[in-house]
Write a structure and sequence with these properties.
Strand content: under 5%
Distance between the termini: 60 Å
Structural class: mainly alpha
Order of helices and strands: HHHHHHH
Bound molecules: protoporphyrin IX containing FE
CATH class: Mainly Alpha
Number of domains: 1
Radius of gyration: 20 Å
Helix content: over 70%
Number of strands: 0
CATH topology: 3 helical TM bundles of succinate and fumarate reductases
CATH architecture: Up-down Bundle
């Protein structure tokens, strides 16, 4: 078995190659989140959901978006499969961590990334089932996306659904906090001047993006309970 085989003829079969792929797919997913959040912020618009429904309708019918969605699914699959392979390999051959070279601590983070990663995957399955599959498979032709989101964040699972989102966003924040800077490190972008900046950027990103997403269910809950 190849442990750290920079000499392996197929780079992606090596641990370095896998870390590289993990980082690339991670950065791709990192670029998706702000775009998704920007669209979701339309939910705050006080127009009965008109803008959000128009946006969702465009997203679910545009050919360009369909192509991008395929890329997104591939990005998620690569990230998940590679994550499983790296975690298994790390367990079998400590102390090589996924964000560092051999001998570099972080086996704790490696575990922590796998756990938060699995929980985020559970969240994603629930999320896609509630929204995407509902509108494309279970109820094709139903274009009332805003109503679906509203009902889910007001009374979904009898009140727990919005808090499930808030907890998931907390876990997403943890995952991104380490993942963001580790992705740059694994790509070899380690620089005296830029690494501290990347760390700061990663911290800001991992706080603001999950906070933005979490604000949505909280907003629907507060409004539902007439708190504002
Ligand atoms: C309050 C938070 C969120 C809301 C209200 C929301 C809303 C939605 C809606 C309505 C869809 C269906 C779009 C369609 O089928 O055309 C969707 C799809 C999706 N969401 Fe979210 N989302 C949220 C958070 C997230 C987060 C945090 C992630 C990733 C970790 C995520 C990943 C996805 C993915 C991968 C899809 C399927 C791809 C797509 O249809 O574009 N979402 N989301």
């Amino acid at each position: 078995m190849v442990q750290n085989g920079s000499s392996h003829p197929f780079i992606l079969a090596t641990s370095i190659g896998r870390k590289f792929l993990m980082s690339l797919s991670g950065l791709f997913l990192i670029s998706f989140l702000p775009v998704h959040l920007a669209g979701n912020l339309l939910l705050f618009k006080d127009d009965g959901g008109a803008a959000f429904d128009a946006y969702s309708h465009f997203m679910s019918t545009s050919v360009i978006i369909r192509v991008l969605e395929i890329a997104l699914v591939v990005g998620f699959l690569v990230h998940i499969i590679d994550g499983i392979l790296l975690t298994r390999r790390n367990k079998a051959a400590r102390p090589i961590s996924y964000s560092g070279g051999s001998g570099r601590v972080l086996s704790f983070f490696s575990k922590y990334m796998a756990l938060t990663g699995i929980l985020i995957l559970v969240y994603l399955v629930v999320h896609i089932n509630s929204y995407t599959l509902k509108h494309r498979i279970y109820e094709p032709g139903n274009l009332a996306f805003y109503e679906t989101v509203k009902v889910s964040f007001e009374t979904g699972w009898s009140g727990f659904y919005p808090w499930f989102y808030v907890i998931a966003m907390l876990l997403l924040g943890f995952h991104l906090n380490h993942g963001f800077q580790s992705a740059f490190q694994s790509l070899g972008l380690n620089h005296k001047k830029y690494t501290p900046l990347i760390k700061k950027l990663g911290l800001a990103y991992s706080v603001l993006i999950p906070l933005g997403f979490a604000a949505i269910p909280i907003f629907f809950q507060l409004r539902y309970h007439n708190i504002f």
